[in-house]
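Q: what sequence does this backbone want?
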Protein backbone atom coordinates (compact mmCIF):
# COMPACT_ATOMS: atom_id res chain seq x y z
CA UNK A 1 0.00 0.00 0.00
CA UNK A 2 1.26 3.53 -0.70
CA UNK A 3 2.15 5.66 2.28
CA UNK A 4 2.60 9.38 2.71
CA UNK A 5 5.72 10.13 4.71
CA UNK A 6 6.68 13.69 5.56
CA UNK A 7 8.55 13.03 8.79
CA UNK A 8 12.23 12.17 8.69
CA UNK A 9 12.81 8.53 7.82
CA UNK A 10 14.09 6.52 10.79
CA UNK A 11 17.60 6.13 9.31
CA UNK A 12 20.31 8.43 10.69
CA UNK A 13 21.40 11.45 8.71
CA UNK A 14 24.89 12.06 7.35
CA UNK A 15 26.07 14.26 10.21
CA UNK A 16 25.24 11.54 12.74
CA UNK A 17 28.15 9.62 11.16
CA UNK A 18 30.46 12.62 11.04
CA UNK A 19 29.88 13.10 7.30
CA UNK A 20 29.76 16.91 7.33
CA UNK A 21 31.02 18.70 4.22
CA UNK A 22 32.73 22.07 3.94
CA UNK A 23 33.19 24.97 6.31
CA UNK A 24 29.85 26.74 5.91
CA UNK A 25 27.13 26.46 8.55
CA UNK A 26 23.98 24.49 7.64
CA UNK A 27 20.51 25.90 8.15
CA UNK A 28 18.45 24.90 11.21
CA UNK A 29 17.15 21.70 9.55
CA UNK A 30 20.06 21.18 7.17
CA UNK A 31 17.43 20.74 4.46
CA UNK A 32 16.03 22.34 1.34
CA UNK A 33 13.09 23.52 3.48
CA UNK A 34 15.42 25.95 5.27
CA UNK A 35 14.62 28.20 2.31
CA UNK A 36 11.40 29.91 3.49
CA UNK A 37 8.30 28.71 1.67
CA UNK A 38 9.81 25.55 0.16
CA UNK A 39 7.90 22.35 0.90
CA UNK A 40 8.50 18.68 0.17
CA UNK A 41 6.07 15.73 0.13
CA UNK A 42 6.46 12.04 -0.59
CA UNK A 43 4.30 9.09 -1.52
CA UNK A 44 6.06 5.74 -1.08
CA UNK A 45 4.93 2.50 -2.74
CA UNK A 46 6.20 -0.46 -0.73
CA UNK A 47 4.59 -3.77 -1.67
CA UNK A 48 6.64 -6.76 -2.79
CA UNK A 49 8.19 -6.10 -6.18
CA UNK A 50 6.77 -2.57 -6.21
CA UNK A 51 9.36 -0.36 -4.53
CA UNK A 52 9.00 3.14 -5.92
CA UNK A 53 7.23 6.44 -5.33
CA UNK A 54 6.88 10.13 -6.02
CA UNK A 55 8.52 13.16 -4.40
CA UNK A 56 7.10 16.67 -4.83
CA UNK A 57 9.04 19.91 -4.32
CA UNK A 58 7.06 23.17 -4.08
CA UNK A 59 8.94 26.49 -4.30
CA UNK A 60 5.99 28.13 -2.54
CA UNK A 61 2.47 27.18 -1.54
CA UNK A 62 0.75 29.64 -3.88
CA UNK A 63 -0.27 29.45 -7.53
CA UNK A 64 3.01 28.68 -9.30
CA UNK A 65 1.52 29.14 -12.75
CA UNK A 66 0.70 32.76 -12.00
CA UNK A 67 3.61 33.49 -9.66
CA UNK A 68 6.62 31.84 -11.33
CA UNK A 69 10.00 31.62 -9.57
CA UNK A 70 13.04 32.35 -11.69
CA UNK A 71 14.66 28.97 -12.49
CA UNK A 72 17.45 27.34 -14.47
CA UNK A 73 18.57 23.85 -15.47
CA UNK A 74 22.02 22.37 -16.04
CA UNK A 75 22.60 19.01 -17.74
CA UNK A 76 25.94 17.48 -16.75
CA UNK A 77 25.24 14.25 -18.65
CA UNK A 78 21.98 13.99 -20.53
CA UNK A 79 21.10 10.31 -20.28
CA UNK A 80 17.59 10.90 -18.94
CA UNK A 81 13.89 11.18 -19.68
CA UNK A 82 12.97 14.41 -17.90
CA UNK A 83 10.11 16.68 -18.98
CA UNK A 84 10.03 20.48 -19.03
CA UNK A 85 13.73 21.37 -18.90
CA UNK A 86 13.81 22.90 -22.39
CA UNK A 87 11.26 25.60 -21.54
CA UNK A 88 12.83 26.26 -18.13
CA UNK A 89 16.09 27.00 -19.91
CA UNK A 90 14.45 29.10 -22.63
CA UNK A 91 12.20 31.22 -20.40
CA UNK A 92 14.05 31.03 -17.09
CA UNK A 93 11.01 30.29 -14.96
CA UNK A 94 9.24 27.45 -13.20
CA UNK A 95 5.43 27.29 -13.41
CA UNK A 96 4.58 23.98 -11.71
CA UNK A 97 5.86 22.07 -8.71
CA UNK A 98 8.73 19.66 -9.43
CA UNK A 99 7.97 15.95 -9.33
CA UNK A 100 10.58 13.21 -9.02
CA UNK A 101 9.76 9.58 -9.81
CA UNK A 102 11.01 6.53 -11.72
CA UNK A 103 11.88 6.65 -15.42
CA UNK A 104 8.77 5.00 -16.84
CA UNK A 105 6.40 7.08 -14.70
CA UNK A 106 7.44 10.48 -16.06
CA UNK A 107 4.44 10.71 -18.41
CA UNK A 108 1.97 9.86 -15.66
CA UNK A 109 3.48 12.40 -13.28
CA UNK A 110 3.50 15.02 -16.04
CA UNK A 111 -0.21 14.55 -16.67
CA UNK A 112 -0.88 14.86 -12.93
CA UNK A 113 0.94 18.20 -12.89
CA UNK A 114 -1.07 19.43 -15.88
CA UNK A 115 -4.32 18.51 -14.12
CA UNK A 116 -3.10 20.20 -10.94
CA UNK A 117 -2.31 23.40 -12.86
CA UNK A 118 -5.62 23.42 -14.76
CA UNK A 119 -7.56 22.95 -11.52
CA UNK A 120 -6.14 26.23 -10.24
CA UNK A 121 -6.05 27.99 -13.62
CA UNK A 122 -8.99 27.03 -15.86
CA UNK A 123 -7.81 29.48 -18.54
CA UNK A 124 -4.75 27.32 -19.34
CA UNK A 125 -4.72 26.34 -23.01
CA UNK A 126 -7.93 28.27 -23.70
CA UNK A 127 -7.48 31.99 -23.14
CA UNK A 128 -3.87 31.91 -21.96
CA UNK A 129 -0.75 29.82 -22.58
CA UNK A 130 -0.39 26.11 -21.90
CA UNK A 131 1.59 24.90 -18.91
CA UNK A 132 5.11 23.45 -18.67
CA UNK A 133 5.15 20.53 -16.20
CA UNK A 134 8.57 19.64 -14.75
CA UNK A 135 9.24 15.98 -13.96
CA UNK A 136 12.64 14.41 -13.38
CA UNK A 137 13.55 10.77 -12.96
CA UNK A 138 15.97 8.00 -12.13
CA UNK A 139 15.75 4.31 -13.04
CA UNK A 140 14.86 2.21 -9.99
CA UNK A 141 14.46 -0.95 -12.11
CA UNK A 142 16.96 -3.16 -10.25
CA UNK A 143 14.86 -3.01 -7.06
CA UNK A 144 11.46 -1.99 -8.40
CA UNK A 145 9.32 -3.73 -11.03
CA UNK A 146 9.44 -0.65 -13.21
CA UNK A 147 7.45 -2.36 -16.00
CA UNK A 148 4.45 -2.62 -13.69
CA UNK A 149 3.88 1.14 -14.18
CA UNK A 150 2.65 1.21 -10.59
CA UNK A 151 2.79 4.98 -10.11
CA UNK A 152 -0.58 6.59 -10.87
CA UNK A 153 -1.78 10.15 -11.23
CA UNK A 154 -3.41 9.71 -7.81
CA UNK A 155 -0.01 8.95 -6.28
CA UNK A 156 1.47 12.08 -7.85
CA UNK A 157 -1.47 14.16 -6.64
CA UNK A 158 -1.05 12.72 -3.14
CA UNK A 159 2.63 13.72 -3.09
CA UNK A 160 1.62 17.27 -4.04
CA UNK A 161 -1.04 17.28 -1.32
CA UNK A 162 1.49 15.98 1.21
CA UNK A 163 3.84 18.85 0.38
CA UNK A 164 1.04 21.42 0.62
CA UNK A 165 -0.11 20.05 3.98
CA UNK A 166 3.29 20.56 5.59
CA UNK A 167 3.99 23.64 7.67
CA UNK A 168 6.44 26.08 6.15
CA UNK A 169 9.98 24.81 6.64
CA UNK A 170 9.03 21.34 7.87
CA UNK A 171 11.50 18.51 8.29
CA UNK A 172 12.15 16.51 5.12
CA UNK A 173 11.88 12.74 5.05
CA UNK A 174 15.09 11.26 3.69
CA UNK A 175 16.40 7.83 2.72
CA UNK A 176 14.24 5.11 1.18
CA UNK A 177 11.15 7.28 0.75
CA UNK A 178 9.16 8.73 -2.13
CA UNK A 179 10.98 8.63 -5.44
CA UNK A 180 14.03 7.34 -3.56
CA UNK A 181 12.39 4.09 -2.47
CA UNK A 182 14.01 1.84 -5.09
CA UNK A 183 17.21 3.78 -5.83
CA UNK A 184 20.81 2.54 -5.54
CA UNK A 185 24.00 4.58 -5.12
CA UNK A 186 27.63 3.39 -5.39
CA UNK A 187 26.41 -0.19 -4.86
CA UNK A 188 24.58 0.77 -1.66
CA UNK A 189 20.94 1.61 -1.04
CA UNK A 190 20.38 5.17 -2.26
CA UNK A 191 17.40 7.49 -2.17
CA UNK A 192 16.47 11.01 -1.08
CA UNK A 193 18.98 13.25 0.68
CA UNK A 194 19.05 16.94 1.56
CA UNK A 195 21.33 19.61 2.98
CA UNK A 196 21.53 23.40 3.23
CA UNK A 197 23.97 26.21 3.89
CA UNK A 198 23.46 29.54 5.63
CA UNK A 199 24.64 32.74 3.91
CA UNK A 200 24.86 36.36 5.03
CA UNK A 201 24.46 39.09 2.43
CA UNK A 202 24.04 42.78 3.21
CA UNK A 203 23.66 41.84 6.87
CA UNK A 204 20.66 39.57 6.19
CA UNK A 205 20.45 35.80 6.53
CA UNK A 206 19.78 33.70 3.45
CA UNK A 207 19.88 29.99 2.65
CA UNK A 208 20.72 27.69 -0.22
CA UNK A 209 19.23 24.21 0.06
CA UNK A 210 19.68 21.07 -2.00
CA UNK A 211 17.62 17.90 -2.37
CA UNK A 212 18.98 14.94 -4.34
CA UNK A 213 17.56 11.77 -5.81
CA UNK A 214 20.69 9.62 -5.62
CA UNK A 215 20.83 6.62 -7.96
CA UNK A 216 24.33 6.75 -9.41
CA UNK A 217 27.98 5.86 -8.85
CA UNK A 218 30.14 2.84 -9.61
CA UNK A 219 30.47 0.40 -6.70
CA UNK A 220 33.76 0.90 -4.91
CA UNK A 221 34.12 4.55 -5.99
CA UNK A 222 32.30 6.21 -3.07
CA UNK A 223 34.50 8.72 -1.25
CA UNK A 224 33.79 10.09 2.21
CA UNK A 225 34.82 13.62 3.24
CA UNK A 226 37.87 12.29 5.10
CA UNK A 227 39.16 10.64 1.92
CA UNK A 228 38.15 7.06 2.63
CA UNK A 229 36.97 5.06 -0.38
CA UNK A 230 34.07 2.79 0.58
CA UNK A 231 32.93 -0.33 -1.29
CA UNK A 232 29.89 -2.54 -0.67
CA UNK A 233 30.67 -5.96 0.85
CA UNK A 234 29.93 -7.88 -2.36
CA UNK A 235 32.20 -7.34 -5.36
CA UNK A 236 30.39 -5.57 -8.21
CA UNK A 237 32.03 -4.52 -11.47
CA UNK A 238 28.92 -2.88 -12.90
CA UNK A 239 29.54 0.17 -15.10
CA UNK A 240 28.41 3.64 -14.11
CA UNK A 241 24.90 3.89 -15.54
CA UNK A 242 22.72 5.38 -12.83
CA UNK A 243 21.42 8.90 -12.47
CA UNK A 244 21.25 11.74 -9.97
CA UNK A 245 18.81 14.61 -9.85
CA UNK A 246 19.87 17.70 -7.89
CA UNK A 247 17.21 20.25 -6.94
CA UNK A 248 18.51 23.55 -5.52
CA UNK A 249 16.49 26.29 -3.86
CA UNK A 250 17.59 29.67 -2.54
CA UNK A 251 16.13 32.92 -1.28
CA UNK A 252 19.08 34.88 -2.65
CA UNK A 253 17.91 37.06 -5.56
CA UNK A 254 19.54 35.71 -8.72
CA UNK A 255 18.76 36.11 -12.38
CA UNK A 256 18.52 33.09 -14.69
CA UNK A 257 22.15 33.30 -15.79
CA UNK A 258 23.47 33.53 -12.23
CA UNK A 259 21.27 30.69 -11.09
CA UNK A 260 22.59 28.47 -13.85
CA UNK A 261 26.15 29.30 -12.83
CA UNK A 262 25.35 28.33 -9.24
CA UNK A 263 23.67 24.99 -9.96
CA UNK A 264 26.50 24.03 -12.32
CA UNK A 265 28.58 23.64 -9.13
CA UNK A 266 26.48 20.61 -8.24
CA UNK A 267 29.04 18.81 -10.40
CA UNK A 268 31.76 19.68 -7.86
CA UNK A 269 29.82 17.97 -5.08
CA UNK A 270 29.11 14.91 -7.22
CA UNK A 271 32.78 14.60 -8.17
CA UNK A 272 33.82 14.81 -4.52
CA UNK A 273 31.75 11.73 -3.64
CA UNK A 274 33.29 9.79 -6.53
CA UNK A 275 31.18 10.35 -9.65
CA UNK A 276 32.66 11.02 -13.07
CA UNK A 277 29.27 11.39 -14.83
CA UNK A 278 29.46 8.18 -16.82
CA UNK A 279 28.11 7.64 -20.31
CA UNK A 280 24.90 6.01 -19.09
CA UNK A 281 24.32 8.35 -16.17
CA UNK A 282 21.71 11.11 -16.18
CA UNK A 283 23.20 13.87 -14.03
CA UNK A 284 20.92 16.89 -14.00
CA UNK A 285 20.52 19.94 -11.75
CA UNK A 286 17.55 22.28 -11.55
CA UNK A 287 17.47 25.35 -9.36
CA UNK A 288 15.08 28.16 -8.48
CA UNK A 289 15.07 31.30 -6.39
CA UNK A 290 12.08 32.36 -4.32
CA UNK A 291 13.37 35.93 -4.27
CA UNK A 292 12.60 36.69 -7.93
CA UNK A 293 9.15 35.95 -9.32
CA UNK A 294 7.53 36.46 -12.71
CA UNK A 295 3.88 37.51 -12.71
CA UNK A 296 1.98 35.60 -15.40
CA UNK A 297 -0.52 38.47 -15.68
CA UNK A 298 2.03 41.30 -15.67
CA UNK A 299 0.75 44.40 -17.52
CA UNK A 300 3.89 46.54 -17.52
CA UNK A 301 6.16 46.65 -20.53
CA UNK A 302 9.30 46.74 -18.37
CA UNK A 303 9.70 44.96 -15.04
CA UNK A 304 12.44 44.95 -12.40
CA UNK A 305 14.26 41.93 -11.00
CA UNK A 306 16.94 42.01 -8.31
CA UNK A 307 20.22 40.18 -8.72
CA UNK A 308 23.28 39.36 -6.66
CA UNK A 309 26.46 41.41 -6.96
CA UNK A 310 28.53 39.08 -9.12
CA UNK A 311 31.58 39.60 -6.91
CA UNK A 312 29.70 37.84 -4.08
CA UNK A 313 28.70 34.76 -6.05
CA UNK A 314 31.57 32.58 -4.82
CA UNK A 315 29.68 32.15 -1.54
CA UNK A 316 26.84 30.46 -3.43
CA UNK A 317 29.25 28.37 -5.52
CA UNK A 318 30.79 27.01 -2.32
CA UNK A 319 27.39 26.42 -0.71
CA UNK A 320 26.14 24.56 -3.78
CA UNK A 321 29.17 22.26 -3.94
CA UNK A 322 29.13 21.46 -0.22
CA UNK A 323 25.36 20.99 0.07
CA UNK A 324 25.26 18.69 -2.97
CA UNK A 325 28.08 16.55 -1.61
CA UNK A 326 26.43 16.27 1.80
CA UNK A 327 22.95 15.64 0.36
CA UNK A 328 24.28 12.57 -1.49
CA UNK A 329 25.91 11.28 1.70
CA UNK A 330 22.66 12.06 3.53
CA UNK A 331 20.71 9.84 1.13
CA UNK A 332 23.19 7.00 1.66
CA UNK A 333 23.35 7.39 5.45
CA UNK A 334 19.58 7.54 5.91
CA UNK A 335 18.63 4.77 3.49
CA UNK A 336 16.94 1.80 5.14
CA UNK A 337 16.75 -1.77 3.78
CA UNK A 338 14.53 -2.53 0.79
CA UNK A 339 13.85 -5.98 -0.68
CA UNK A 340 12.28 -5.68 -4.10
CA UNK A 341 11.86 -7.41 -7.44
CA UNK A 342 13.08 -11.03 -7.43
CA UNK A 343 14.38 -10.55 -3.90
CA UNK A 344 16.90 -7.92 -4.99
CA UNK A 345 18.39 -5.72 -2.28
CA UNK A 346 21.29 -3.37 -1.64
CA UNK A 347 23.48 -3.09 1.48
CA UNK A 348 23.02 0.03 3.59
CA UNK A 349 25.99 2.31 4.13
CA UNK A 350 24.88 2.88 7.71
CA UNK A 351 25.42 -0.79 8.54
CA UNK A 352 29.01 -0.58 7.32
CA UNK A 353 29.66 2.66 9.19
CA UNK A 354 28.07 1.35 12.39
CA UNK A 355 30.11 -1.85 12.24
CA UNK A 356 33.37 0.07 12.13
CA UNK A 357 34.59 -2.11 9.29
CA UNK A 358 35.29 0.70 6.82
CA UNK A 359 38.95 1.29 5.90
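A:
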Amino acid sequence: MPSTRNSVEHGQRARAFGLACGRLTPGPRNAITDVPGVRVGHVTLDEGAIQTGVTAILPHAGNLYRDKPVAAAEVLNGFGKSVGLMQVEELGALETPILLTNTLSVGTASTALVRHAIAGNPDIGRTTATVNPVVMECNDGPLNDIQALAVTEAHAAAALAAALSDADGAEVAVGSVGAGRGMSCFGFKGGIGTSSRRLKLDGKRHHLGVLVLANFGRPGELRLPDGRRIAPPAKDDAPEKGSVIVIAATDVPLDHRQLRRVIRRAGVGLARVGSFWGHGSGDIALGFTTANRIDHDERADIVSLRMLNERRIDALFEAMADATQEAVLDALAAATPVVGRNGASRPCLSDLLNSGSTP
